[in-house]
Write a structure and sequence with these properties.
By secondary structure, the chain is α/β, with parallel strands linked by helices. The protein is built from nine helices and 18 strands. The protein is about 30% helix and about 30% strand.
Length: about 325
């Protein structure tokens, strides 16, 4: 599963969200190809006074009301010098002055001299930052592709994986018949969002289509209704279908884990044998995982009761005789 990180540019930001975010380019039009590789923003704070320890120069710099009030108290020469030092310390993507505040001459001059795009927005700082981060998160978060099927089962995003021909699509089809929701078949695009959240998407060309051996390509929405598929869901569990070989954990005391894009999610391995209803097993597995998420682990509860019973029995007969 090759992982690829994505970047965007100031030009893309202006094109995609310029109107929604009320962005205006004040200077640096020639340098809007500067890349944005991280979803965060930085409020410079002490960097405005020349203290660059731990300054995050690789992020978009936001000048809100607090930063602006401090800048107003500085002389033109001092503000320009400190701003130039700040912009020179790393490849700052751009500077954005929020809340419709007038750009101070010292800030503008520093941006012009350091070839850094300067933008303004009329939006309030908090609202602007929230929308900007959401956009950047979508644009720059790492992604990968997984061979499998993603289905939302009882509200839980379940990624079904396994060797080719083992029955992933047939299992997903049965789940859809039982009222669950398809996200993607065959190829699942996985994106890591802030907070180590994994989102699964379907590539645009494959949306609401499935390939079922013996049937060919089917349109899930036309067959089962528009509510039978959705564009994306959080991936919370992986079910790996395998051919039976060797011993299988029958109690399920230990929670299996798998890793996608450096993030661990719960996992389960189910052996595929004739006569097993895999759809029902996955449905129950999803419901059981929801209980586990609430701290209710049936296997451990049973194990505790069993050990307690064995401990009592070892001290004497069940009826109290020595």
């Amino acid at each position: 599963m090759p992982e690829f990180a994505r970047t965007t540019t100031i030009a893309n930001l202006l094109e995609a969200k310029g109107q929604d975010l009320s962005l205006k380019l004040m200077c640096g039009a020639r340098y809007t190809k500067r890349s944005i590789s991280k979803p965060g923003i930085n409020r410079p704070g002490l960097a405005l006074d020349g203290h660059l320890e731990n300054f995050r120069g690789d992020l978009i710099q936001i000048i809100g009301r607090g930063e602006y009030a401090f800048c107003q108290k500085q002389s033109y020469a001092r503000l320009r010098a400190n701003f130039k030092k700040m912009l020179r310390s790393d490849k700052v993507p751009c500077v954005i002055v929020t809340a419709g505040m007038r750009v101070l001459p010292g800030i503008r001059k520093a941006c012009e001299e350091e070839n850094v795009p300067l933008l303004t927005t009329s939006m309030d700082t908090a609202a602007f930052v929230a929308e900007l981060i959401a956009y950047l998160d979508n644009c720059t978060s790492p992604r990968t592709h997984v061979h499998g099927v993603l289905v939302k089962v009882s509200g839980l995003g379940v990624l079904i994986t396994g060797d080719a021909g083992i029955g992933k699509s047939e299992c997903a089809l049965e789940l859809i018949k039982r009222g669950h929701i398809l996200v993607a078949d065959d190829v699942v695009e996985v994106q890591k969002r802030r907070g180590n959240v994994l989102l699964g998407f379907c590539p645009p060309m494959l949306k609401h289509y499935m390939e079922v051996r013996g049937l060919g390509i089917i349109d899930v929405e036309l067959l089962f209704g528009i509510g039978s598929s959705i564009d994306s869901t959080e991936i919370e569990m992986e079910v790996h279908l395998v051919a039976p070989s060797g011993p299988i954990d029958r109690l399920g005391i230990e929670q299996q884990k798998t890793t996608l894009l450096g993030t661990q999610i719960n996992a389960l391995t189910i052996p595929v044998t004739p006569g097993r209803n895999l759809a029902v097993l996955i449905e129950v597995a999803a419901l059981n995982q929801r209980l586990k998420n609430q701290g209710i682990i049936s296997a451990k509860e049973f194990n505790k009761k069993l050990l307690s019973k064995m401990k009592k029995t070892s001290k004497g007969y069940p009826d109290g005789r020595k």
